[in-house]
Amino acid sequence: MGKFKEVTALQLRPGNPSRKWLTFAIAFCISVGSIIYTNMLVQQIEERERNQIERYAHTLEYLANENDNPNVILLLDEIILSNETIPVILTDKNETPEQFRNLPKAEEESDTEKRQFYLRNVLEEMRNQHEPIQITLQVSEEVYGIKYVFYKNSILLTQLAYYPYVQLTIIGVFVVVAFLLFNYSRAAEQNRVWVGLAKETAHQLGTPLSSLMAWSEYFKTSYPDQIEVLKEFDKDVKSLETITERFSNIGSEPKLKKENVIETVEEIVSYLSKRLSTKISLSIEAFPTRDIHANLNASLFAWVIENLLKNAADAMGGKGAIDIKIMKVSEGVAIDISDTGKGMTKSKMYQIFRPGFTTKKRGWGLGLALAKRIIENYHKGKIFLKSSEINVGTTFRILLNDEETTSS
User: Fold this and answer.
1) CA-CA distance, 382 to 293, in Å (whole number)?
2) Taking the complete model, does pTM exceed 0.70, yes or no?
3) How many Cα atoms are found within 13 Å in the side-chain-facing hemisphere of 123?
4) Mean pLDDT score of the chain, rounded to an integer?
5) Mean per-residue pLDDT, 125-152
6) Could you please report the per-residue DSSP string of 5-32?
7) All domains of the chain, ordered by start, with CATH?
8) Phi and psi for 398 in degrees, rounded to 5?
9) How many C-alpha atoms does 386 have within 13 Å on its Cβ side?
10) How many CB atoms lie within 10 A of CB 254?
11) Beta strands in 133-277 (DSSP E)
């Protein structure tokens, strides 16, 4: 049985994290490779567009200087008019726009001032992308004029530059959705296993529990002088009956009702105080009064408190103090459970509620995971590690709803 417990506990713990890192590394390499390859294509197309604009500029220069050449019309058709994608602006030496091409918004603008304003803005954008190309025009035999050709990337090149990021975003969204669906499916499967295991446990406990109750009645009749001992025996039997009821009800929505939190916790502490080490002191404080109520399922809530108290006792090695503070706060009712145990490191703080995680050699790593489920799923409250310091102690906090009760 011990061997079975050890293997099962191991199986419940989280898998090897190296596989996750390997998957992440592969995805990262694919992403980087995609971006590098696309950037190479962008650079090649950008260089080709630069060459095309340079030919465009040289053609303009040639046309201005060779007006009587019969090849002018051919050059006009082959080079200048063939550019239907790259936005271009031709300016004078003062960079005042004179002509433009492939700027639909400028072509649609009928107001000259507005068009010039728009072209100047585009000119600055072009300057930020590429160095302008200078062309020299011969005005007369000894006089030369300077003009500049500004241009920016075509729409196709711009789309290609952003393509890998859009692609990776879509893949990322798909991976996240798939991961969430996988986790939901796995969580649903785990829930079915939890429910089946719990109900089977309750069923198996039923027979020995009935036998213990019969033995209790027999002992009361046969040993009337041991009434105090038998009272404690009855408490343990009652505790087993409560545990069986808890397991039996897992999977069904528990009913919550308004309970006095102080009295409920005191009852739990009264039972456990005689079953923990005598070197452990337990104290309960209430603020501002003892009249603090919250919506509880007393049986399941007791399970959580018992688990936290037992964990605290283990953390102290059976010697120390456990302080319980019950307070009215803005969120409802707060219950702080503090111990003077060995505390824990930050790396453990982030894992304590994970199913299968435990610091005990023979631990299953299920207690805090169940406590979180009971408080957050059933009671719609919160449970978290408030603080922990090595060799000083640990404090857990439970937040409960204190509004008018409703059946869940």
Assistant:
1) 16
2) no
3) 20
4) 79
5) 79
6) HHHHHHHHS---HHHHHHHHHHHHHHHH
7) 22-153 (3.30.450), 253-400 (3.30.565.10)
8) -115, 130
9) 16
10) 19
11) 133-138, 144-151, 257-260
